[in-house]
Design brief:
Layout (H helix, E strand, L loop, with lengths): L1 H9 L9 H57 L1 H7 L15 H10 L5 H13 L3 H8 L15 H4 L1
Amino acid sequence: MLTKRKNLLDKSAGSKKVHPIIGLVLLMIAMVLLILTGPIGFLYSMIYAFIRKGLTGLGEFCFQMALAIDQLGNVIMQHLLNHLIIKKREIPFGDPDETISSVIGKNMLKDNLTRTGRSIDKILNFIDPAHSFRSIAYQIEYRPHEKGEIHIPSKAQN
């Protein structure tokens, strides 16, 4: 029984086979819960972060939210981004643990961006110099909530 549980835990979310109806039901439940509880949790977290660490805490929380939204966007828009931004599907969009900027940076390093992709990269770099390259590095840097542990993307562990 323990081996069976371990095998279930070893499988990454991206490779797990899910019945289409189960996936749809889970998505609907998640969306309803987000709509009902999200505003309360968001407001509570904003106040809590500000009380605990002032503007620094508020900034950290906002960064975490931006990162989570970026990862969500990577999943939601994966097919569109794969068609518009990259030439070959060597490093595709869609990994739920990766940001759009990180995928753009990795594809830029491989000279695998379309004209649209290069334009988006230039805009990001104008706003935040070396943004897409630093977003790659962020994946392997220390995370604030994992003292001393390094986040290694699941694909690199195989």
